[in-house]
Automatic annotation (TrEMBL):
It holds the Pfam family LysR_substrate. CDD domains: PBP2_LTTR_substrate. Residues 1-58 form the HTH lysR-type domain. SUPFAM superfamilies: Periplasmic binding protein-like II, Winged helix' DNA-binding domain. This is Aminoethylphosphonate catabolism associated LysR family transcriptional regulator family protein. Belongs to the LysR transcriptional regulatory family. The lineage of its organism: Bacteria, Pseudomonadati, Pseudomonadota, Betaproteobacteria, Burkholderiales. One of its GO terms (molecular function) is DNA-binding transcription factor activity. InterPro entries: LysR_HTH_N, LysR_subst-bd, Tscrpt_reg_LysR, WH-like_DNA-bd_sf, WH_DNA-bd_sf. Keywords: DNA-binding, Transcription, Transcription regulation.
Length: 287
């Protein structure tokens, strides 16, 4: 209410009459007159000297005018800023992903369509990304964990078969296909706890009753790749994440169909926000 009254005060001060001020504001003359009276009555001051149909600022009005002028300018700037944000001419969208493989094409197209939006992509494991989303540290998350939460919007964006990756000199590399039991006598490279790839690997081995001879925990995809190239062991990796390298062999698993599903999440309460909604429109959907 105070802002509306001050805007009427400012318009009358600039226009010199209530009639002109009302026309500028797009309201009725009684509305402007009533707002001025309420403002003067509430604080027991006189803002204008009435001279016929004209209005001249009092001393109190003169001292108030610079502050109100700043307020009106700030309101205009806020309006422009909100319109820019609504039209996606500016802003910042933070994305947390388990890897670039499933979401980067959407990031590319979003960046081309809305070049004024600053994009930040953080890579981490599935649990870390979901926690960051719920802590409001990111707006979009991709995760391999299937989470049922009424506060989360979820969409499956990929279904990726998992394969065994070994160095081309490894004894398994010449087989082309392997069974889970074939892994038992070899060193198995595993991601850190919290990784869905690790969980799927351990679940598949347990279901098949297979115990591997030795495991090594390696904390990132890049480190897993390097460890395989250094012939430290083999690993189970989703197909899209398998690096292209002449010394690496990717083997189908003959007796187990292990699939990594990737999901896109956002907080349901934030789904209508233009910054997020436009990204969701561009993101893929897997059956």
């Amino acid at each position: 209410m105070l802002v509306a009254e001050l805007k009427s005060f400012y318009a009358v001060a600039r226009c010199g009459t209530v009639t002109k001020a009302a026309a500028q504001l797009g309201v009725s003359q009684p509305t402007v007159t009533g707002q001025l009276r309420q403002l003067e009555s509430r604080y027991g001051i006189e803002l204008f000297h009435r001279q016929g149909r004209g209005m001249r600022l009092s001393d109190a009005g003169q001292s108030l005018m610079p502050m109100v002028e700043k307020l009106v300018q700030q309101e205009t700037e806020i309006d422009f800023r909100l319109r820019d944000a609504s039209d996606l001419r500016e802003g910042n969208l933070r994305i947390g992903a388990t890897g670039p493989y499933y979401i980067m094409d959407t990031v590319r197209r979003y960046n081309q369509r809305y070049p004024g939006i600053d994009l930040t992509v953080t890579i981490g494991n599935s649990q870390t990304m979901l926690q960051a989303l719920q802590d409001y540290r990111i707006e979009i998350a991709t995760s391999s964990f299937l989470m049922d939460d009424k506060h989360l919007y979820r969409r499956k964006i990929a279904a990726d078969p998992i394969r065994v990756v070994a160095h081309r000199n490894h004894p398994l590399a010449r087989l082309g296909q392997v069974r889970l039991a074939d892994l038992a006598q070899h060193a198995l490279l595993l991601r850190e706890p919290g990784s869905m790839t690790r969980q799927l690997t351990e679940d598949a081995l347990q279901a098949a009753g297979v115990t591997v001879r030795r495991t090594l925990e390696i904390g990132s995809r890049e480190s897993i790749r390097q460890a395989i190239l250094c012939e430290l062991g083999i690993s189970l990796i989703p197909s899209r994440e398998i690096p292209s390298h002449p010394d690496l062999a990717a083997l189908d698993i003959q007796d187990a169909g292990i699939v990594m599903n990737e999901y896109l999440y956002c907080l349901r309460e934030r789904q209508p926000v233009q910054l997020i909604a436009r990204f969701l429109e561009m993101a893929p959907a897997a059956g």
